[in-house]
Records
---
Amino acid sequence: MKKQINAGELTEILQNWSDNKNPENNNALFNLVYDELRRQAHRFLLKERREHTLQTTALVHEAYLKLVNQKKDSWESRGQFFAIAATMMRRILIDYAKQKHRVKRGGANDDLPLEEALTLTVSNTSFNLIELDEALNRLAEKEEYLAKIVELRFFSGLDVSETAKVLNVSESTIKRDWAMAKAWLHRELTR
Amino acid sequence: MDEKWQKIREIFDAALRRKPEERPNFVVEACGEDKSLLAEVESLLSSLGSADGFLETPVADKVADLIQSKNQRLAFGTVFSHYEIIEQIGEGGMGEVFLAKDTNLNRKVALKLLASHITEDKTRVSRFRQEAFATSALNHPNIVTIYEIGKWQARDFIVTEFIEGMTLREHVRKKKPSVGEALDIALQVASALAAAHGAGIVHRDIKPENIMIREDGLVKVLDFGIAKYRPTQNGQKALIETEAGEIIGTAAYMSPEQARGLEIDPQTDIWSLGVILYEMLAGKLPFQGATKSDRIAAILEREPAPLTKTGGKVSLLLQRIIDRALAKDKRERYADIAELAEDLHLLRETTGDKISSSLILPIRSRRSPRRTYWLAAVSLLVLLSGAFGLWFYLSKTRQMSGSARKSIVVLPLKPINPASRDELYEIGIADSLIQRLGLIKGFVVRPLSSIRKYVDVEQDALAAGREQQVDYVLASNYQIAGGKIRVTSQLLNVESGQVEETYKGEKATTDVFAMQDAIANEIGKLLQSRFALTSGTPATTRGTDNEEAYRLYLQGVYFNDKRLPPDGEKAVEFFEQAVKIDPNYARAWAGVAFAHRSLIDIGADVDYQEQHRISMEAVTKALALDPNLSEAYNALCINKLNYEYDVDGAETACRRAIELDPNSPLAHNTYSRLLFSSQRKRFDEAIAEIKTAIDLDPTAFYHQLVYMFALTMSRRYDEAVPQLERLAQRNPKRALISFWLVSGVAFQGKEAEDFERLTRFEKLAETNDETIKAIETAYQTDGWQGVLREHAEYNAKHDQTFYFTACAYAQAGDKEKALEYLEKTYQHREHWMEYLGVDPRLDNLRDDPRFIELIKRVESK
């Protein structure tokens, strides 16, 4: 399957999606983007010799380039694409983690302690990826926009200025809102 | 978005626009009356403060790690260094474990390979290596042996002995162990841990997966992977420490402190072993939950179901062991793994099926081999069985040798858990004991001031006993658990090193003073009956009901004893705070009196008249509150002697002080100083008094110094000079002060000797080269007289004590200057005036009418 759409089309589809005018289209697009992202992620993640620093953005870019006719590229469409891709990346990565987790646990009985496979230690904080995902859902209930920032930055690997462009706010606002999201999540995960 | 969230967001956002240091105030202001809003914003700000680096690295590479570790297995036959992979036998967060063949030595080994993606992560690599070093440092049959630590093709690996058997996890899954077997396993793990802890290593991840059981029953502890080096007893430094706050370890076996990310110590392993023991006996985990966070919540909050409720037949003793190992507050847990092991041993003796006892090594207790265990006292089971009467050792040999008084030092109580110390227990109980034992006729008890220094050091009771020149040491430790304090005291015979008596007591800590008195009284009675002695009536000598005031008082005593100006000021401060809190606290008032008096005597830069006035007021207050307070009379005596030059009044006070507390070294010291003054000249008595003070408190520098001074004033130079040398050795910093108290009189006619000693002491006291040079020049030009003049001028220039300057001028032959400075001494109300008539340093002035007149003036005061 090799289907390409141009940026104009994508913008339109994305617009429809956010306006919720055309649900069927949404599904089609979603599947399209999701499949492509997963393929990219899979290839990327399983690559025998990976570069040491992984650029998730590069991965999303690659998916985007695959899907969109580059010549009529516009930031608007790219930004919207990134916003959606971030949600998808989150889902893909969590799925991978869960899948890996299942493999590791085998069918062992329930008294077995959880493996540490899903535990990430960043600086002084250890947290479980699944727990982070759950906390992020709770954050979205409070304010979806903050959860979106986390998706873009943590799951999709965008930097502050890219995130600001995608969400169409100033960089300084992103910095403060990112701080808010981090503070809230950090508290959730360490209490 | 609800309204409250909106508000939180707004204030948080506005706070971030301000400088970090302005934020706290801003937030308080912005939240106004809304306390819950304030709490919320503050907690978010604090969370942000500790969220450095949090979420800053995109997650994808972490996920990649997870996926990759699954796909990077070494296949059968792969040659890795000189090892040939046979099969993968395990996988962990750090990497995989393979069964391999060492092709050089042709033996099976376990090869642990650090996952390749971790190689980039320096912390994890060092953690991996740390495991290796930690484990290889331990040579113990219950700890897996390390063969090699290496790196091959950029991959770190560890090779260990291959243990044929199964993990404890697999073992218990096959068949639930009997109580005896469970105890055997726990004991072997404890034995391994005792060795590790002894080497300063905490395992931190004791779980059934890390415990291997060989077919013959031998247990091996693996995976010191997250072991943490702690400074060992001999002071060796930690190599690498895992950062506090990092939660590593497996949830179900984590101690509460570990789950909280707090500092970890050996107590954490005791907890984990407790969990394992429980799991083996009950067939399930003590703390359960569907998710990791539920489990952690259970660890932090819930008590495990009693073992009896889990089906098995379980003795109370076993439940007790579990309870103590699984105490949430680590201070309530076993003091160390050896103590847990001893209880397990004890219990195993009473359990029928001993299956592999030969595999259990005795665990070397770090304490006295005759240590008795509190557990035994509560264990009816054991006592009734009768077999352990011997074990519960309590020496009742009643032998009184001769009629000589027994000297005893009461050491500060040693905390079983050094992390939570409380002076009220350590010094407070010792203070009560000193007071109580002091009442026993036939006992000489070292004063509180002499035992302070044993607080901060690793107590060697017998060494302390030797230093204090006593017959006996009363060494105790304490443990706080569940609102109770458990005290264990041992009476050690210093000469034989034997424990002659053991006391164990448990008291509620609700009323600290009642507790202290009760313990002191029980121990007092025990020792009284041990030596068949009688005692006076216990009096309430503490004199306050306020814990804080008492605490402050103890601090005051501590600083007072140092007898140096900055400490003297601290002493004043503490005593004054104590009386502020409890104005009816007589002992603290006596402390105020003494501390202010001392400020003058130790040469602090203070207004003498003012200090004297405050001191006397405090004496009056103390005596009004307690007319029988020896310390107050002592302070009164010093004031009368040193400031008022009222020798008769001083003598009355001094005698009263000694009468009220014949064991007070300070009272004897003061009386000695009075006895060798110009108006008494009772030198033999004076020397006897100061010797009594020294007998009561042999280590105090102050008594030794006064002894030397007394010998000098008595002109017993042959004894004074060796005493000077002793003092200089003992306290080089004060060598010069000591020297000038005797200077030039003790060695009359032996100038060269004088000079040699002075330069030696100058070096001892680490004086600057300039001063030494000045002395040398003076000696070369004008001999010893020159040195004395140089010293006098130095003193005069540096505003030293006038009396010392006067003495130096007098010795140098400058009568005019000497008299000028003596007059200043008098005007300034320095103490020393009472020695004008006896001080050999002033002999050059004896026939000068002005000097005679001055003595008269002083004596007519």
Note: The two ends of chain B are 87 Å apart (CA to CA).
---
Amino acid sequence: MRKCYFDHVATNPLHPDVLEAMMPYFKEEFGNPLSIYEYGSRAKKAIEDAREKVAGLVNAKPAEIIFTASGAESNNFALRCIALAKQNEGKHILVSRMEHHSILNSARFLEKSGFTVTYLPVDKKGFVDPDVVKKAITKETILLSVTHASSEVGTIEPLKEIVRVAKEHNIIVHTDAVATTGNIPVDVKELGVDLLSMAAHQFYGPKGAGALFIKQGLRIVPLIYGGIQETGRRAGTENVPAIVGMGKAAVLAQNELQARMDYVRPLRDRVIDTMSGVSNVFLTGDREKRLPGHVSFCVEFIEGEAMLLLLASKGIFSASGSACSSKALKASPVLLSMGVPAGLAQGSIVFSLGMGNTSGDIDYLLEEFPAVIKRLREISPFAQGWGEGEGGGACTVKK
Amino acid sequence: MKFVENVKPDVTTDIVYMMCPMHLLKLEEQIKELEQGQILEIMTDYDGALEDIPAWCEKTGNEFLGMEESADFYKFYIKKLAR
């Protein structure tokens, strides 16, 4: 059976060149970067080389890059540790409703710790309106976190405009760029952000490697206390192979960025164009300002989980909702915040394409997916509509 | 302890929130970058620096000009003398 992996927002396969670059650091180059003899100094040099490469990918200085173990860790680090560092200046934080759980749950933790958090609403395409940001700012506001692009609906936020509004009030801006770094151009100077989270496995690097860009001069409370690793802000012996892998993946992404975007975009557009013709299948997010390999739909009258299982039985691997909520059988908060009725949000499905997908894979998907929808609708008790109850069969997401 | 006011530093290093031994490592790293006679300002909230920084200056032959206390951290001023 054909196997098609359409879940690149969950993770990407490792690029063979990345694996090759990492291998020595699993074997003979096992030194601790803090050791002063040659094993240590070679490991240290490998980390610093990787730092320069990751900095290059987002147009930062090497000293502005702190390695972490994941995008979620970077998000926790940014939100919680900036809040702690700036709490004397104010205790109000803004986060959008499009954020990943690692931002939303960090924000909830901060609320319990005495901070006030405003959750910024989004429009039906998932855009955060800079004017909404402006109105939410108070004298107490210290930090704003808005994702660069949602991995759930693919919408790329108008970050530059949002940053401009925040900067008029001297507010620190963090962005979760896990879904965008290595997939579309990401330039910290152009965006104007103070902090930016990224994860290596989103651009063909290894899992267990992430990074946080912290603008030079910005004071942040350390995430982990201990030794002097990562200038004392994130102690613990470094995951040298993963960091080396992230560096290599960053170079590849930088060199191949345009080619990768040009490769996946037409595949994505074929899926969107064809599936939009199927009745009661609605594209979520924006048609144009979306991640190049990202397709997301709400399919009316059926459940996302059922689609995932049937598609998986055909060798088609996709996701429903954000990557880590596929196990939490509930409507996605992101879709609900976009005004998608709860019933329709249950039928959410995401296909995220990557360099391993071929035109033949898309043919196969476009043949099997409508058949799966048809089969599930035949057995769905809701196939005749949602009735007079919640949602009332109406849909705020227009084709 | 020597207290000073309105010292004009040539270079400032902010290591507030960073623990021991960052204050000594950064001090050493930054002093290397300075020309003789230039002044380094170190901002830290680490109490150990109160003893360590003057002692480090004495040991290395650099001049400890003094410190200034602000709301939630200390500022230390060191003039590079040793080559």
Note: The longest helix of chain A spans residues 240-275.
